[in-house]
Amino acid sequence: MSKKILITGGAGFIGSHLALKLAGKGYTVTVLDNLSHQIHGTDGDSFLFRSIKDKVHFIKGDVRERADWLKALQDQAIVVHLAAETGTGQSMYEIEKYIDVNIRGTAILLDLITGKKCSIRKIVLASSRAIYGEGKYRCPDHGDVFPVHRKESDLLKKDFNVKCPVCSRDVDLLSTDEDSKIHPQSIYGITKETQEQLLSVALNSLKIPYSILRYQNVYGPGQSLSNPYTGILSIFSTRIKNNKDLNIFEDGVESRDFIYIDDVTEATQLAIEKKEADYEIFNVGTGMPVSVLEVAQSLKKVFQSNIKIAISGHFRLGDIKHNYADISRIKEKLKFTPKYDFQTGLMKFSSWVDTQKIQADHYDRSIQEMKEKGLYK
Question: For burial by CB atoms within 10 Å, which of 34, 77, 206, 245 has the most?
Answer without folding.
Answer: 34
